[in-house]
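Reopening this ticket.

The earlier resolution said the output was attached, but the attachment link was broken on my side. Pasting everything inline this time so it's all in one place.
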Amino acid sequence: MQFNVSGLLKGPVGATREYDFEERVLEHLTDDTELIRPISGHVQLMRTREGILVTGTVHTRAETVCSRCLAPAYYDLDVHIEEEYYPTVEVYTGAPIPWQEFTDDEALLIDAQHILDITEVVRQDLIISLPMKPLCSESCKGLCPVCGADLNKGPHECVEEDIDPRWAALAGFKVEP
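Inline output:
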């Protein structure tokens, strides 16, 4: 998701460009999450005094692992992005610009060839939009804590008698009313 912004950097403050895109630049969002659709979206690039302001929306679909039963869980991800990118060289002279006064995040830099790359910002925003505890369904029952059987597939034969050995002697104790 790269855009050549040399023309926009030469333009006046407030000049804009708009782009629609659909790309398959990221396959794995995290270790257990992969994107199963290309990333698509619409962005507006606007010239500011210091650089280029990127605003837009991004859409994709992700497959991850249910936190209860370990089955696949699917999510449609829609994120809004808004970041300002800063040039590293002056567009007319090619002289280096001390970008450290604007940002300490190298992902927000426009390279020496005036290419603005939003891939890392999109990746971070998509990760943030994932739920902390993904579920295959809201009614997921998870796994049996004793035998590990999937409780969503119906009842199972496991007996859950996990008695604390300190209280085992009381198991045979009968109280009469």
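Reporter confirms the inline version is readable. The radius of gyration is 26 Å. The beta strands are 2-4, 16-23, 28-30, 33-35, 39-47, 52-65, 72-87, 109-110, 115-117.
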